[in-house]
Amino acid sequence: MTSLDTQGDPILLEMRSITKEFPGVKALSNVSLRVMAGEIHAICGENGAGKSTLMKVLSGVYPYGSYTGDIVYQAATQQFKDIRASEAAGIVIIHQELALIPELSIMENIFLGNEPTKWGVIDWAEARKRSMELLARVGLREDPDTPIKEIGVGKQQLVEIAKALNKSVRLLILDEPTAALNESDSQHLLDLILGLKGKGITSIIISHKLNEIEQIADEITIIRDGKSIETLNVKRDGVDEDRIIKGMVGRTLESRFPDHEPKIGEVFFEVKDWTVGHPQIQDRLICKGSNFYVRRGEIVGFAGLMGAGRTELARSLFGHSYGRFIKGQVYKDGRPVNLRSVRQAIDAGLGYVTEDRKSLGLNLLDDIKTTTVAAALDKISNYTVVDARKEFSVAEEYRKSLRTKTPSVEEGVAKLSGGNQQKVVLAKWMFTDPDLLILDEPTRGIDVGAKYEIYGIIQRLANQGKGVIVISSELPELLGLSDRIYTIFEGAITGVLDKNEATQESLMKLMTSARKTA
Amino acid sequence: MNALKKLFGGNTRQFGMIFALVALIVFFQIFTGGRTLTPGNVINLFNGNSYILILAIGMVLVIIAGHIDLSVGSVAAFVGVSVALAMRDWGLPWWAGVLFGLLLGAVIGAWQGLWTAYVGIPAFIVTLAGMLLFRGFNQFVGKSNTIPVSKDFQFIGSGYLPEIGPNTGFNNLTLLIGIVAAALVVIMSLRARAAAKALGADVPELWVEVTKLVLICGAILYATYLFATGRPGTSFPIPGLILAVLVLIYGFVADKTVLGRHVYAVGGNRHAAELSGVQSKKVNFMVMMNMSILAGLAGMIFVARSTASGPFDGVGWELDAIAAVFIGGAAVTGGVGTVIGSIVGGLVMAVLNNGLQLLGVGADLTQIIKGLVLLAAVAFDVYNKSQGKRSITGMLIKGFQRNNNEIKPDETTTTKEVISKEA
């Protein structure tokens, strides 16, 4: 049933010379992938390299006939015509954007499209029994009746895996499974994948988090510009992050952060006793008397686990766009400022780049130029009439200075890659000329090269004397970028560390304990 | 075909609708034996549809902002009857009646805007309630009677541009407006082209521009000829003039002003708009209020045209207006649509109605055909959008999320280039 390779290991899947073309673009060209049974196989590559396309070919999203090449799975050539066909063969893909229905319960989601029935009626007793078993297997302690919307992203990811297990999966494909997870949830998920490996389930994992790949993968296939570059065996070849990056970008990357000589001035932005109530739940505080300050030219990091209240703190500051019963005082240049609406916040010189680019940061129907000027229309209009020429030239200016890759500023933002979308969002806020720019997960879902550019932009802003707050779940990013890092735990600031005294360990300690509240 | 596409820009939908409109007119012109493009019929067409087109202007803004207004027919009827009563019982002159009507429309709009924008009830519900409410008010204050209006007031619904100047065999004012309009179109397009060129933006080739202008000016001048050569006493109708002015104003506001931008932004992604400092509640309020003002105006024009207000004025108008907007390229999910597109959409329906009537097709068949046209127009659009994008299965997996367009695998900054530039 299973063929063997030269060393005698069983091959589960072989994709041979896969080529897939879209109108005008060759997304995959002669890509080959070989996955051994029972291993964890990572696929690495920059955004747009073709990883997701390859997985869509494998899972039947792009049906047989829409690509050329062969898929040999379990020693037989497969011609999947849709997702159902690949799932029937035991290949289950979990997308980056989870396909769960928020209003339905965990149990209903697990069995969605696959409901156990008796005489055509759903057998809920059976469903409950099986969902308990599945939840136990993925290590999720939740009532199966809990609605999906009430559990966090980390747990939702586990539900997705439970759903896959229910389909008797043999090959599990995870597309960026930890992109939205914090460190501890990520770790749990990685342990789970390792556990599944022990039970004979093969996994293909796509991730930008190279440290995780290094930690769990047996083999790594690197894809660059739609071509498979190489397959590395982690143990045999002694692969480390730098080695992977070298394969992804085609040469070694000396530094993942541009050099930067901070020019830090005086304190100009100060927040005192900032307290925010939960928007729905009475008596629940999301921010508990936070105090912090930002100096001119300083990049200040905010570290905290998911749900610690980092985003909520930022959004409540930014024109009270989150929370109720907001108390506390904000001082800018020594004077108290009122930030009751987003408009006031923008006028007071604040900018906020949201963590959720697609649903909160961009109008995906807009083009680049409209987006660039969206937060500062006054600047390009006379008597409320928008000056199309100014709009165009402003957008053009930012396109050049931020090196946004696009045929024209009249291109729709939906067509850009994540990194370029982020540049457009940054341009939008840079054009409001803020004194303090708050960046919430500025490099989420962005590939290594574009990250480097975004870091450069952030440092340039700081050099212009602006204050920058960076909220990030990636500690190496905070350590590489920030001059000072605050840690948040359950809504309270638990500490502040200088660039030279901060390490991943010291930050983690402060992020997971309410050691001191003063 | 490609050349035609170039003429009307890359927007397939808009191109498709203009093409469909022209094709319809040609079709009916042939099959009615030339009775479609006669001065009398064209004037009739405008007179009989201007109020729907005025509603479509307001409706497209409502729909761009992501709402819908089902109450416009009832609001129009209520304003119509109130104005008729006010003029009859309080002796208001016609212009005071018009002002009163607009004000009443604004008050009604404020009421609906309040519930929609500030209380947060979906506009569908608010205006469904409004539909019942204002229909009831219409019949309550008018006691379900027919209330006639004065000759002065009838002018806004059935008047024509007056005859002035020397006897040229044409209506001079109509002629003047037509020529000025054509000249303005030429001047503005050429200026826009020069400006775009100066900025280094893409401009279409010169022949495209020239052909486009020749076609547009030809259409304007031909329409002018038709309007100016009607039977004595008729010329360009006043409702058509009001409509033209409104199209210019609203087209400008939607396309060129901060307020217009905000309407599109709120409809496209409300949260993103709010986080960019757009006051979405205010925008929603104004859009809803504006709709009712225009509904009031449409109601008055209808009453003026039919010389009296009645209890069943405006029944079903909301559906005609909504159909016009969707045929004209707006998206149900908001954020997309244009004023001019909605007018073209409205004209498609109007020409269809008129042509089928001339052919002697019954009301039953007419409705069936109109229904199919609406469905076909939107299906055409949906089909176009889905081309080369994502398969149905792909959509199902992603859960029909509205804002998740696929990213093309090109256009990515590669690290190599960054590094070589930094080095």
Any overview of this molecule?
The complex is a heterodimer of chains A (518) and B (423). With 518 residues, chain A is an alpha/beta fold. In chain A, a hairpin with a 5-residue loop joins strand 1 and strand 2. In chain A, helix 14 (388-401) packs across helix 15. With 423 residues, chain B is mostly helical. Helices cover 72% and strands 1% of the residues of chain B. Chain B contains 18 helices and two strands. In chain B, helix 2 (12-31) packs parallel to helix 15. Chains A and B meet through helix 11, helix 12, strand 21, helix 14 and helix 15 of A and helix 8, helix 11, helix 12, helix 17 and helix 18 of B.
Strand content of chain B: under 5%
Count every beta strand of chain A, where a strand is a DSSP E run of 2 or more residues.
25
Structural class of chain A: alpha/beta
| Major sheet details of chain B | 2 strands, antiparallel
- The N- to C-terminal Cα distance of chain B equals 49 Å
Strand order of the largest sheet of chain B: 1-2
How many H/I helical runs of chain B?
18
Task: Name the average pLDDT of chain A.
Answer: 85
Largest interchain contact: A-B, 82 and 51 residues
Tell me about the biggest sheet of chain A?
A: 6 strands, mixed
Subunit organisation of the chains: heterodimer
SS-based class of chain B? mainly alpha
Rg of chain B (CA only):
23 Å
Would you report the number of β strands of chain B? Answer: 2
Short note summarizing the structure:
With 518 residues, chain A is of the alpha/beta class.
For this entry, give a set of tags:
A: 518 residues; alpha/beta; 6-stranded mixed beta sheet; 18 helices; 25 strands; 28% strand; B: 423 residues; mainly alpha; disordered C terminus
